[in-house]
Amino acid sequence: MKVKEISLFAMIVLIFIGCTRQTPSVERPDIIPIPYKSEMKGGNFKVNGKTKVLMNSSDNKVKNVAEALQSTLSAYTKRFLSVSQAGGKQPKNSIFLKIDETLSEDLGKEGYKLSVKSSRIEISAPEPAGLFYGVQTLYQLLPPGIYSSHDSLADADLDLKIPCIEVTDKPAFPWRGMHLDVSRHFFPKEFIEKYIDLIALHKMNVFHWHLTDDNGWRIQIDRYPLLTEVAAWRADREGIPWAECQPQRPGEPATYGGFYSKEDIREIVEYAEQRFVTIIPEIEMPGHTSEVFAAYPEFSCTGKRTTVQTGSYWPNNDIFCAGKDETFGFLEIVLDEVMELFPSEYIHIGGDEADKTAWKSCPDCQARIRKEGLSGVDELQSYFVKRIEKYVKAKGKRMIGWDEILEGGIAPDATVMSWRGYEGGIDAARQGHQVVMCPGSYCYFDHYQADPEFQPEAIGGLTTVKKVYSFFPIPSELSRKEGELILGGQGNVWTEYISTTSHAEYMALPRMTALAEVLWSPVNLLDWDNFRSRLQTQFSRFDRMDVNYSQGSGKVDLTPLMNVDNKPYTLKLETEETGTSIYYTLDGNTPDRSSFIYRKPINIDHDGTLKAVAFKDDKQLEKPAEYEIEYHRIVGKNIIYLEKFSERYPGNGPQTLNDGLSGSLNYNDGYWQGFNGNNVDVVIDLGEDFTFKTISATFLLDQKRLIFIPETVNYYLSEDGERFQKIASVTHNISLNNERVLTNDFTAKLNKPLKVKYLRVEAINIGVCPEWHPEKGQKAWLFIDEIVVK
Fold it and tell me: With 424 labelled, which of 254, 392, 472, 625 sits at a CA distance of 20 to 30 A?
């Protein structure tokens, strides 16, 4: 393909995206997740004392939706709205909830249509879930006060005006989940219901309830009462850093903990069902089980009684004995009682971080390996998981587990939850298994979401709201058919460092909000700036719900605005938090409130060090951010990609390679572009005759993460964009088996200056990981940063 043809194709794509993106106007309601289609109309529908809520179905689920709507509107207006079955034609001054099965082909099981006219409102959907989601959108057309508790509205006497709008909406993914760990810290039933409310508010539909782990067993099992009498309680170490908690001392009482009774769980399940949230229970196995052995040590390999872990516990070498049939008898009884409580299709069995050291020396496990003809402990784990999966399947359920269940061979009908990056999910999908994506770098909400010095303690990492919003569940490495096996995604809230309900809310929100939009809305409608604007109204809703939330990172982010078409190269500064004042310097000095104040993008025409800091309400939000700017000669020139970069590692988009900014040694810092298994091959349209003497491209080596520098980097020149002449090939002598993370510049120095209009850079990927690598045969990654011409 010729460069000019590629350029035209790129323009067509951009025009198409521009036409299909629905960027809401100022008047457009701040709906989250943004709907599939919406169009504002003139006028309003007014709710008053004569407004009726009607429905055309006697289904109890529809009735629940109608009564919840009636209750909310009545409380807010202090005027009682009636609920009844619809007769023939829909009357004026009514809100009609209509089941219309003919819509299923276009909207699926959860889609809906919302039509607000000045005379009436109609929400139609093929199934009750769609009506519920349509009502959630209707609430977002109203003032945030609609989310207030009924008690706080005792003095309300308000008319409601709902703007006229036409909405057609449906989710992009069927699995839109949130997880909560209640083993590390126990949360009361009332908070679990509030958490479910937040899930439902965001049109998410799965609550993954992590009920058992080393630090406490949280579910009543009648046949094994010691699980709640003993395994649910640990010595109290609250107030002591998690990693410094000492084990329970002999004779010390175990006073911290709790559990959910079967009655509690039935009530919570019913509560969730009324909000169209499915609860997936997780019972950990074969590892993360030391709390069980505090109650029933006979199911371990050693038979030794443990204490319930009070804090950090590593290596996690307590594990169910896979050699004893009694172990499987215990687990089957537990699963029977769990499956009786939870009507969900799936049962989660964990499967992660199983340290198999005990199996290596356990006579029973070794006997099992010999009897079953297994190759070793990895295949013994596969035997364990497959045996449990067979039992779960026989009970009419489906098994799901963390991506470690792939080790040694996966159970035939298991679904994989991929948390250690995308790789486990890719492997599972290629084997024909369904997958839920929740890679830690995007979906672990126990990570910090801003500068740790300015945040409550967290487990580590940094996952900002903006980073979550950039998540996409389907890896580009998968074929279309394989991609269809990706069910969706999930945000995970592990609670080692989260001991209160207020802290749990703060860690979940608004990252849950960002994830909800990614999983519901069409990808062409996802726009960070627009989402950030709508998020401010969502914060008002949270305020009325009395939830604690983060306002995002206060770090000053820098976005280069390119000089394509002879526009000046400028730098846009912003924070995730709104309402901030940003101060900056360009000489490397630390900024304060006497420095330049940022009002509009900054023109740049030379190298420099930009430092910037944000203040809000006279309070500094984070440490100053620092950016080294190299204003080289091709900054902002048009780049045409002959090989596409990975959607998972796009950097700052197509201009990442010549934006004047360099990445760190962290491949995931947003300044590197990743290419999986394929070469880097780009053409830079210089736009005019251009004279230069050196050209360089920077690549990353981080072999532990499958990232390798290229074999060779080739540089080509062209006058017409069609015929290219190679001017240099640059290699290296660096060992790929390097323990250190490093960068390498592939620089070509010309004997004399050359004049050219088009420059092509081709970096040859090694293809797959080398034989010595633990992931040998897996596709190798190329990570490229800045291309510099001087």
Answer: 392
The total of other beta-carbon atoms located within 10 Å of residue 127's CB is: 22
Measure the CA–CA gap between 111 and 770, rounded to whole angstroms.
Answer: 47
Fill in the amino acid letter for 75. Answer: A
Dihedral pair phi/psi, residue 167, rounded to 5°: -125, 135
| Helix, strand counts (H, E) of the chain | 19, 34
pLDDT score recorded for residue 790: 86
Centre a 10 Å sphere on the Cβ of residue 381 and count the other Cβ atoms it contains. 25
Encoding tokens for residue 34?
A: 């943004």
pLDDT at residue 124 above 50?
Answer: yes
**Tens-place pLDDT, residues 15-31:** 333 333 333 333 578 99
Q: Which two tokens stand for residue 585?
A: 């310097």
Residues 322-337 pLDDT 10s: 999 999 999 999 999 9
CB burial class (10 A; 0-12, 13-18, 19+) of residue 314?
exposed
Q: Are 616 and 579 in contact (CB under 8 A)?
A: yes
Nearest to 175 by CA among 597, 512, 479, 486: 486
Instruction: Tell me the C-alpha distance between 45 and 508, whole Å.
Output: 34
**Count of C-beta atoms within a 10 Å radius of residue 106:** 11
Q: State CA 244 to chain mean position distance.
A: 30
Domain boundaries, the chain: 25-169, 175-545, 557-629, 638-789
Whole-model pTM? 0.90
End-to-end CA distance of the chain: 28
Q: Which of 30, 110, 169, 213 is catalytic?
A: 213
Q: Is the peptide bond before 774 cis (omega within 30 degrees of 0)?
A: no
Closest CA to 512 of 548, 475, 476, 458: 548
Phi (first) and psi of residue 98, to 5 degrees: -120, 120
Nearest-angstrom CA–CA distance, 279 and 739: 43
Given 288, 348, 433, 447, the catalytic residue: 288
Choosing among 3.90.1150.10, 3.40.50.720, 3.20.20.80, 3.40.50.1820, the CATH entry for 175-545 is 3.20.20.80
Who contacts 526 (Cβ-Cβ below 8 Å, separation ≥6)?
A: 34, 469, 517, 518
157 band by pLDDT with thresholds 50, 70 and 90: low
Q: Is 264 tagged catalytic?
A: no
Rg of the chain, C-alpha, whole Å: 29
Residue 534, φ and ψ in degrees, nearest 5: -65, -25
In the Cβ-directed half-sphere of 240, how many Cα atoms lie within 13 Å? 12
Q: Residue with structure tokens 């303690």? A: 457
CATH of 25-169, one of 3.40.50.300, 3.30.300.30, 3.30.379.10, 3.90.1010.10: 3.30.379.10
375 Cβ contact list (under 8 Å, min separation 6): none
Q: Which residues contact 662 (CB under 8 A, 6 or more apart)?
A: 628, 630, 671, 698, 785, 786
159: annotated active-site residue: no
**C-alpha torsion 331→336→340→344, nearest 10:** 60
The set of residues, in sequence order, having a beta carbon less than 8 Å from that of 393 and lying 6+ positions away, is: 399, 413
Which of these, 736, 763, 754, 531, lies nearest to 643 by C-alpha position?
Answer: 763
Active site includes 210? no
Name the active-site residue from 59, 267, 337, 353. Answer: 353
User: What are the start-end ranges of the E strands in 193-307?
Assistant: 206-210, 212-213, 216-217, 233-234, 256-257, 278-285
